[in-house]
Amino acid sequence: MNKHALIVGATGITGSNLAEHLLSKNGWTISGLSRSQSPIPGVETFRCDLVDARSVQIALADAKPTHVFITAWSRQETEAKNCEVNGAIVRNVLDALKGRGVKHVALTTGTKHYLGPFESYAKTQPETPFREEQKRLPGENFYYVQEDEVFAAAARDGFTWSVHRPHTLIGYAVGNAMNMAATLGVYASICKETGRPFVFPGSPQQWQAATDVTDTRLLARHLEWASTTDTAANLAFNVVNGEVFRWKWLWPRLASYFGIEAAAYPGEPNPLESQMDDAAPIWDGMVKKYGLQPNALSRVASFWHSDADLGRQVETFNDMGRSRKLCFLDYQDTTQSFTDAFDRLRADRIVP
Protein backbone atom coordinates (compact mmCIF):
# COMPACT_ATOMS: atom_id res chain seq x y z
CA MET A 1 0.00 0.00 0.00
CA ASN A 2 1.32 3.44 -0.87
CA LYS A 3 1.54 5.48 2.30
CA HIS A 4 1.00 9.24 2.37
CA ALA A 5 2.53 10.95 5.40
CA LEU A 6 1.33 14.36 6.54
CA ILE A 7 3.94 15.81 8.89
CA VAL A 8 2.53 18.60 11.03
CA GLY A 9 5.49 20.81 11.85
CA ALA A 10 7.62 19.57 8.96
CA THR A 11 10.25 22.30 9.36
CA GLY A 12 11.01 21.55 13.03
CA ILE A 13 13.73 19.31 14.37
CA THR A 14 11.48 16.23 14.63
CA GLY A 15 9.46 16.88 11.49
CA SER A 16 12.44 17.58 9.24
CA ASN A 17 14.33 14.50 10.39
CA LEU A 18 11.20 12.39 9.95
CA ALA A 19 10.72 13.74 6.42
CA GLU A 20 14.31 12.87 5.51
CA HIS A 21 13.88 9.38 6.92
CA LEU A 22 10.62 8.61 5.12
CA LEU A 23 11.99 9.98 1.84
CA SER A 24 14.77 7.41 2.11
CA LYS A 25 12.19 4.60 2.28
CA ASN A 26 10.12 3.13 -0.51
CA GLY A 27 6.37 3.56 -0.60
CA TRP A 28 6.01 6.95 1.11
CA THR A 29 4.67 10.22 -0.25
CA ILE A 30 5.49 13.13 2.05
CA SER A 31 3.51 16.31 2.70
CA GLY A 32 4.29 18.90 5.32
CA LEU A 33 1.95 21.26 7.16
CA SER A 34 3.66 24.34 8.55
CA ARG A 35 3.83 28.10 8.45
CA SER A 36 6.93 28.10 6.22
CA GLN A 37 8.08 26.13 3.21
CA SER A 38 10.00 22.93 3.87
CA PRO A 39 13.53 23.19 2.44
CA ILE A 40 13.69 19.43 1.90
CA PRO A 41 13.29 18.37 -1.77
CA GLY A 42 10.45 15.92 -2.17
CA VAL A 43 8.24 17.38 0.58
CA GLU A 44 5.06 19.05 -0.64
CA THR A 45 4.28 21.87 1.77
CA PHE A 46 0.78 22.98 2.77
CA ARG A 47 1.29 26.38 4.39
CA CYS A 48 -1.06 27.63 7.08
CA ASP A 49 -1.44 29.03 10.58
CA LEU A 50 -1.92 25.89 12.65
CA VAL A 51 -3.81 27.77 15.36
CA ASP A 52 -6.37 29.09 12.85
CA ALA A 53 -8.92 26.36 12.12
CA ARG A 54 -10.05 27.97 8.87
CA SER A 55 -6.47 28.32 7.66
CA VAL A 56 -5.85 24.63 8.33
CA GLN A 57 -9.06 23.59 6.57
CA ILE A 58 -8.11 25.57 3.46
CA ALA A 59 -4.57 24.20 3.41
CA LEU A 60 -5.79 20.59 3.74
CA ALA A 61 -8.81 20.91 1.44
CA ASP A 62 -7.51 18.27 -0.99
CA ALA A 63 -5.21 16.29 1.31
CA LYS A 64 -5.85 12.59 1.91
CA PRO A 65 -3.02 11.31 4.06
CA THR A 66 -2.94 7.78 5.36
CA HIS A 67 -0.63 8.65 8.26
CA VAL A 68 -0.49 11.89 10.25
CA PHE A 69 2.58 12.76 12.34
CA ILE A 70 1.99 15.66 14.73
CA THR A 71 5.34 17.14 15.76
CA ALA A 72 4.42 20.84 16.17
CA TRP A 73 4.00 22.95 19.28
CA SER A 74 3.99 26.64 20.10
CA ARG A 75 5.35 27.98 23.38
CA GLN A 76 3.04 30.41 25.20
CA GLU A 77 3.42 32.60 28.28
CA THR A 78 1.41 30.35 30.61
CA GLU A 79 0.58 26.67 30.70
CA ALA A 80 -3.12 27.50 30.45
CA LYS A 81 -2.39 29.26 27.17
CA ASN A 82 -0.12 26.38 26.11
CA CYS A 83 -3.05 24.02 26.62
CA GLU A 84 -5.39 26.24 24.64
CA VAL A 85 -3.07 26.84 21.69
CA ASN A 86 -1.39 23.45 21.40
CA GLY A 87 -4.62 21.57 21.92
CA ALA A 88 -6.12 23.64 19.11
CA ILE A 89 -3.26 22.70 16.78
CA VAL A 90 -4.08 19.01 17.12
CA ARG A 91 -7.84 19.53 17.00
CA ASN A 92 -7.70 21.78 13.93
CA VAL A 93 -5.67 19.27 11.94
CA LEU A 94 -7.74 16.23 12.86
CA ASP A 95 -11.04 18.05 12.34
CA ALA A 96 -9.91 19.15 8.88
CA LEU A 97 -9.06 15.53 7.99
CA LYS A 98 -12.31 14.02 9.26
CA GLY A 99 -13.64 11.48 6.76
CA ARG A 100 -10.46 11.44 4.65
CA GLY A 101 -9.41 7.87 5.41
CA VAL A 102 -6.62 8.51 7.91
CA LYS A 103 -5.26 5.16 9.15
CA HIS A 104 -2.92 6.25 11.95
CA VAL A 105 -2.03 9.38 13.92
CA ALA A 106 1.30 9.63 15.73
CA LEU A 107 1.72 12.39 18.31
CA THR A 108 5.15 13.48 19.56
CA THR A 109 5.22 14.95 23.07
CA GLY A 110 8.12 14.48 25.49
CA THR A 111 9.47 13.86 28.95
CA LYS A 112 7.56 16.82 30.38
CA HIS A 113 4.77 14.24 30.48
CA TYR A 114 6.56 12.99 33.65
CA LEU A 115 8.25 16.21 34.79
CA GLY A 116 5.47 18.75 34.36
CA PRO A 117 5.21 21.95 32.30
CA PHE A 118 7.68 24.84 32.30
CA GLU A 119 5.83 26.62 35.13
CA SER A 120 6.34 23.70 37.54
CA TYR A 121 9.09 21.86 35.69
CA ALA A 122 10.78 19.04 37.63
CA LYS A 123 9.28 20.19 40.94
CA THR A 124 8.27 16.63 41.73
CA GLN A 125 10.34 13.49 41.20
CA PRO A 126 8.52 10.55 39.66
CA GLU A 127 10.31 7.26 40.13
CA THR A 128 13.03 6.62 37.55
CA PRO A 129 13.24 5.17 35.04
CA PHE A 130 10.08 6.79 33.72
CA ARG A 131 7.59 4.21 32.46
CA GLU A 132 4.67 4.81 30.15
CA GLU A 133 2.10 3.47 32.59
CA GLN A 134 2.89 6.11 35.24
CA LYS A 135 -0.11 8.29 36.01
CA ARG A 136 -0.40 11.84 34.77
CA LEU A 137 0.75 14.55 37.13
CA PRO A 138 -1.90 16.81 38.66
CA GLY A 139 -2.39 20.22 37.09
CA GLU A 140 -2.29 21.58 33.57
CA ASN A 141 0.00 20.09 30.94
CA PHE A 142 -0.49 20.72 27.24
CA TYR A 143 0.86 17.26 26.40
CA TYR A 144 -2.17 15.77 28.17
CA VAL A 145 -4.51 18.06 26.24
CA GLN A 146 -2.92 17.06 22.93
CA GLU A 147 -3.23 13.38 23.82
CA ASP A 148 -6.90 13.80 24.70
CA GLU A 149 -7.55 15.49 21.34
CA VAL A 150 -6.00 12.52 19.55
CA PHE A 151 -7.94 10.02 21.64
CA ALA A 152 -11.25 11.79 20.97
CA ALA A 153 -10.66 12.00 17.23
CA ALA A 154 -9.59 8.34 17.10
CA ALA A 155 -12.81 7.29 18.84
CA ARG A 156 -14.77 9.42 16.36
CA ASP A 157 -12.97 8.48 13.14
CA GLY A 158 -11.65 4.98 13.81
CA PHE A 159 -7.92 5.45 13.19
CA THR A 160 -5.20 3.96 15.39
CA TRP A 161 -2.78 6.19 17.29
CA SER A 162 0.59 6.23 19.00
CA VAL A 163 2.18 8.72 21.40
CA HIS A 164 5.95 9.21 21.37
CA ARG A 165 7.78 10.71 24.37
CA PRO A 166 11.39 11.56 23.53
CA HIS A 167 13.80 13.09 26.00
CA THR A 168 16.20 15.92 25.05
CA LEU A 169 16.41 15.97 21.25
CA ILE A 170 19.80 15.73 19.57
CA GLY A 171 20.09 16.16 15.81
CA TYR A 172 20.43 18.52 12.91
CA ALA A 173 18.19 21.58 12.85
CA VAL A 174 18.52 25.34 12.58
CA GLY A 175 16.14 27.83 14.17
CA ASN A 176 14.60 25.30 16.53
CA ALA A 177 14.21 25.87 20.26
CA MET A 178 14.68 22.24 21.20
CA ASN A 179 18.03 21.53 19.54
CA MET A 180 20.68 21.09 22.24
CA ALA A 181 23.30 19.96 19.72
CA ALA A 182 23.25 23.30 17.92
CA THR A 183 23.20 25.21 21.21
CA LEU A 184 26.20 23.38 22.66
CA GLY A 185 28.00 23.52 19.32
CA VAL A 186 27.64 27.30 19.28
CA TYR A 187 28.66 27.54 22.95
CA ALA A 188 31.80 25.44 22.39
CA SER A 189 32.71 27.43 19.28
CA ILE A 190 32.44 30.73 21.16
CA CYS A 191 34.51 29.35 24.03
CA LYS A 192 37.19 28.23 21.57
CA GLU A 193 37.18 31.61 19.81
CA THR A 194 37.35 33.70 22.96
CA GLY A 195 39.26 31.47 25.35
CA ARG A 196 36.34 31.31 27.74
CA PRO A 197 36.13 28.17 29.88
CA PHE A 198 33.89 25.45 28.49
CA VAL A 199 32.05 24.90 31.76
CA PHE A 200 29.04 22.66 32.22
CA PRO A 201 26.17 25.12 32.78
CA GLY A 202 23.77 22.91 34.66
CA SER A 203 22.99 21.69 38.15
CA PRO A 204 25.09 19.38 40.34
CA GLN A 205 22.31 16.83 40.08
CA GLN A 206 22.49 16.77 36.27
CA TRP A 207 26.30 16.67 36.36
CA GLN A 208 26.24 13.57 38.58
CA ALA A 209 22.96 11.77 37.85
CA ALA A 210 22.14 9.19 35.21
CA THR A 211 20.27 10.57 32.22
CA ASP A 212 19.59 9.92 28.54
CA VAL A 213 18.77 11.76 25.31
CA THR A 214 16.98 11.07 22.03
CA ASP A 215 18.63 11.15 18.62
CA THR A 216 16.14 12.62 16.15
CA ARG A 217 17.08 9.94 13.59
CA LEU A 218 16.12 7.20 16.03
CA LEU A 219 12.91 9.06 16.84
CA ALA A 220 12.09 9.17 13.11
CA ARG A 221 12.58 5.42 12.82
CA HIS A 222 10.42 4.88 15.91
CA LEU A 223 7.62 7.04 14.48
CA GLU A 224 7.56 5.03 11.27
CA TRP A 225 7.75 1.73 13.15
CA ALA A 226 4.84 2.49 15.49
CA SER A 227 2.67 3.85 12.69
CA THR A 228 3.08 0.71 10.57
CA THR A 229 3.21 -2.04 13.23
CA ASP A 230 -0.12 -3.50 14.30
CA THR A 231 1.06 -4.52 17.77
CA ALA A 232 2.20 -0.94 18.48
CA ALA A 233 -1.23 0.56 17.83
CA ASN A 234 -2.94 2.60 20.53
CA LEU A 235 0.04 2.77 22.87
CA ALA A 236 2.34 5.44 24.28
CA PHE A 237 6.11 4.99 24.08
CA ASN A 238 9.20 6.47 25.61
CA VAL A 239 11.82 7.00 22.89
CA VAL A 240 15.48 7.38 23.89
CA ASN A 241 18.86 6.25 22.56
CA GLY A 242 19.03 3.23 24.82
CA GLU A 243 22.24 4.44 26.49
CA VAL A 244 22.31 5.93 29.99
CA PHE A 245 25.17 8.34 30.74
CA ARG A 246 26.30 11.09 33.12
CA TRP A 247 27.13 14.59 31.92
CA LYS A 248 30.43 14.50 33.83
CA TRP A 249 31.38 11.64 31.48
CA LEU A 250 30.06 13.21 28.26
CA TRP A 251 31.21 16.82 28.75
CA PRO A 252 34.96 16.17 28.14
CA ARG A 253 34.07 14.19 25.01
CA LEU A 254 32.14 17.13 23.58
CA ALA A 255 35.06 19.43 24.42
CA SER A 256 37.48 17.09 22.66
CA TYR A 257 35.48 17.29 19.43
CA PHE A 258 36.06 21.06 19.32
CA GLY A 259 39.69 20.83 20.36
CA ILE A 260 39.20 22.52 23.72
CA GLU A 261 39.51 21.50 27.36
CA ALA A 262 36.49 20.88 29.53
CA ALA A 263 36.59 23.22 32.51
CA ALA A 264 36.35 21.81 36.00
CA TYR A 265 32.76 21.77 37.17
CA PRO A 266 32.32 24.62 39.70
CA GLY A 267 29.73 22.76 41.77
CA GLU A 268 26.84 25.09 40.95
CA PRO A 269 24.79 26.11 37.90
CA ASN A 270 26.28 28.64 35.49
CA PRO A 271 23.39 29.08 33.02
CA LEU A 272 24.12 29.62 29.35
CA GLU A 273 21.76 32.57 29.16
CA SER A 274 23.98 34.39 31.67
CA GLN A 275 27.27 33.20 30.20
CA MET A 276 26.25 34.18 26.68
CA ASP A 277 24.37 37.43 27.38
CA ASP A 278 27.14 39.40 25.63
CA ALA A 279 27.87 36.89 22.88
CA ALA A 280 25.69 38.18 20.01
CA PRO A 281 28.34 40.59 18.62
CA ILE A 282 31.03 37.94 19.14
CA TRP A 283 28.97 35.52 17.10
CA ASP A 284 28.36 38.08 14.38
CA GLY A 285 32.12 38.54 14.09
CA MET A 286 32.63 34.77 13.87
CA VAL A 287 30.04 34.52 11.10
CA LYS A 288 32.04 37.02 9.04
CA LYS A 289 35.46 35.64 9.96
CA TYR A 290 34.64 32.03 9.08
CA GLY A 291 32.18 32.63 6.25
CA LEU A 292 29.26 31.04 8.08
CA GLN A 293 25.64 31.26 7.04
CA PRO A 294 24.32 34.66 8.19
CA ASN A 295 22.29 33.42 11.14
CA ALA A 296 21.81 35.50 14.25
CA LEU A 297 22.92 33.88 17.50
CA SER A 298 19.29 33.65 18.64
CA ARG A 299 18.45 31.57 15.58
CA VAL A 300 21.14 28.92 15.95
CA ALA A 301 21.26 28.63 19.75
CA SER A 302 18.46 28.27 22.28
CA PHE A 303 20.20 28.86 25.58
CA TRP A 304 17.02 29.04 27.68
CA HIS A 305 15.83 25.61 26.55
CA SER A 306 19.16 23.89 27.20
CA ASP A 307 19.35 25.64 30.57
CA ALA A 308 15.97 24.13 31.45
CA ASP A 309 17.18 20.64 30.55
CA LEU A 310 20.60 20.90 32.17
CA GLY A 311 19.41 22.80 35.23
CA ARG A 312 17.03 20.16 36.53
CA GLN A 313 17.59 19.12 40.11
CA VAL A 314 16.14 15.63 39.72
CA GLU A 315 17.33 12.46 38.03
CA THR A 316 15.72 11.90 34.65
CA PHE A 317 15.92 8.81 32.44
CA ASN A 318 13.44 6.61 30.64
CA ASP A 319 12.56 2.96 30.30
CA MET A 320 12.29 1.56 26.74
CA GLY A 321 10.93 -1.84 27.74
CA ARG A 322 7.57 -1.42 25.99
CA SER A 323 9.21 -0.83 22.61
CA ARG A 324 11.76 -3.60 23.15
CA LYS A 325 9.05 -6.14 23.93
CA LEU A 326 7.39 -5.25 20.62
CA CYS A 327 10.71 -5.71 18.77
CA PHE A 328 11.84 -2.12 18.22
CA LEU A 329 15.48 -2.77 19.11
CA ASP A 330 17.29 0.28 17.68
CA TYR A 331 20.15 1.73 19.73
CA GLN A 332 22.09 4.95 19.24
CA ASP A 333 25.48 5.88 20.70
CA THR A 334 24.99 9.23 22.43
CA THR A 335 28.44 10.71 21.82
CA GLN A 336 27.94 9.99 18.13
CA SER A 337 24.51 11.64 18.25
CA PHE A 338 26.27 14.89 19.16
CA THR A 339 29.30 14.53 16.91
CA ASP A 340 27.19 13.57 13.87
CA ALA A 341 25.07 16.68 14.43
CA PHE A 342 28.21 18.80 14.88
CA ASP A 343 29.65 17.36 11.64
CA ARG A 344 26.57 18.35 9.69
CA LEU A 345 26.36 21.79 11.28
CA ARG A 346 29.95 22.37 10.25
CA ALA A 347 29.46 20.99 6.75
CA ASP A 348 26.55 23.40 6.22
CA ARG A 349 28.57 26.31 7.61
CA ILE A 350 26.29 26.81 10.60
CA VAL A 351 29.16 26.59 13.11
CA PRO A 352 32.90 26.96 12.40
Automatic annotation (TrEMBL):
<feature type="domain" description="PRISE-like Rossmann-fold">
    <location>
        <begin position="64"/>
        <end position="352"/>
    </location>
</feature>
<dbReference type="Pfam" id="PF22917">
    <property type="entry name" value="PRISE"/>
</dbReference>
<dbReference type="InterPro" id="IPR055222">
    <property type="entry name" value="PRISE-like_Rossmann-fold"/>
</dbReference>
<dbReference type="InterPro" id="IPR036291">
    <property type="entry name" value="NAD(P)-bd_dom_sf"/>
</dbReference>
<protein>
    <submittedName>
        <fullName>SDR family oxidoreductase</fullName>
    </submittedName>
</protein>
